[in-house]
């Protein structure tokens, strides 16, 4: 199993990236490696984690110019793709041509057989998480699910395919899971077990989002309004503590409160303040896991003046009080 890479402007510099069969190094419960990247004056890193049936890869690339990366692979995979920042465009050539684009904070699930194509980095900074699953492992989870029948058929026919017609927005719960995976300090079999559980949980969130997605509502928005809703979401994710009113947020993205409320719910399946609350609760959960701040400090960060109200909200969302969650870690 290997993939061959070269940059369009540097055809004489070709790299081969090898993968063990089924992503599993025999005799090792889990294997990690990090590759430093330098190209066109840019820098970055590519961090990989391998265990049976799963390959987790986190790429962080900072370029000085837009770049095209040519690739050719000799194996099939199902990829859980999360574009954390930046914009990328992939073209698959040959008889099964396919084209897919990802903007910041979006995800999808992609099937690719052995393919040839190119990847366009359209922004100077790109952060991507890719979780490659073996075909048997992926089918284990969705083989009997009727709504995903077409995707399974494409896999069986070895045609490149995407699970969702649209890329979907990454949710606060997904962000929390991704952070916990990348920050995991466990080792050996314990790390493998931890990451296996998180990969399945992340896959569950993806599948649920696609299964319950209302395509008619999503598609009814004008492209300009869709872009504004995503702008609002980016503001919530990057400046959560500055979002105090719908009116101010609507003004910043160039629309009115009614359009913001209606459009945001249609695109993301939740309200502005529902997403804001979820984001802060996921961050509160992470801070509790770190154990460096008191519950009262975390309560204040989450926007609760009364610690009791925070405890009630936390228990309602996670089924356990903050204090008990902290003790059980």
From TrEMBL:
The keyword Glycosyltransferase does not apply. Residues 230-328 form the HTH araC/xylS-type domain. SUPFAM superfamilies: Homeodomain-like. Pfam families: HTH_18 (PF12833). GO terms for molecular function: DNA-binding transcription factor activity; sequence-specific DNA binding. It comes from the Bacteria. Keywords: DNA-binding, Transcription, Transcription regulation. Gene3D superfamilies: Homeodomain-like. The keyword Ligase does not apply. This is Transcriptional regulator, AraC family. It comes from Pedobacter caeni.
């Amino acid at each position: 199993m290997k993939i061959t890479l070269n940059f369009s402007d540097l055809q004489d510099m070709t790299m081969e990236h090898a993968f063990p069969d089924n992503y599993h190094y025999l005799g090792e419960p889990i294997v990690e490696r990090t590759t430093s990247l330098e190209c066109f004056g840019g820098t970055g890193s590519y961090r990989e984690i391998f265990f049976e049936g799963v390959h987790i890869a986190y790429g962080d690339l900072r370029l000085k110019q837009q770049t095209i990366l040519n690739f050719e692979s000799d194996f099939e995979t199902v990829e859980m793709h999360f574009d954390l920042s930046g914009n990328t465009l992939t073209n698959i050539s040959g008889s099964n041509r396919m084209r897919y684009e990802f903007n910041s904070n979006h995800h999808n699930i992609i099937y690719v057989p052995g393919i040839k194509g190119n990847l366009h980095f359209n922004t100077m900074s790109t952060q991507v998480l890719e979780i490659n699953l073996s075909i048997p492992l992926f089918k284990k989870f969705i083989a009997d699910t009727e709504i995903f029948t077409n995707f399974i058929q494409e896999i069986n026919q070895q045609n490149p395919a995407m699970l969702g017609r649209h890329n979907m927005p990454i949710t606060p719960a997904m962000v929390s899971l991704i952070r916990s995976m990348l920050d995991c300090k466990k080792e050996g079999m314990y790390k493998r077990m931890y990451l296996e559980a998180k990969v399945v949980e992340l896959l569950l969130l993806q599948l649920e989002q696609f299964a319950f997605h209302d395509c008619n509502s999503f598609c009814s928005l004008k492209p300009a309004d869709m872009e504004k809703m995503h702008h609002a979401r980016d503001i919530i994710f990057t400046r959560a503590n500055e979002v105090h009113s719908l009116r101010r947020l609507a003004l910043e993205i160039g629309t009115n409160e009614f359009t913001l409320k209606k459009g945001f719910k249609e695109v993301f399946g939740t309200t502005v303040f529902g997403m804001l609350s979820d984001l802060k609760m996921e961050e509160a959960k992470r801070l509790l896991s770190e154990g460096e701040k008191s519950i009262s400090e975390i309560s204040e960060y989450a926007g609760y003046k009364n610690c009791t109200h925070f405890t009630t909200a936390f228990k309602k969302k996670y089924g356990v009080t903050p204090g008990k969650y902290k003790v059980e870690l």
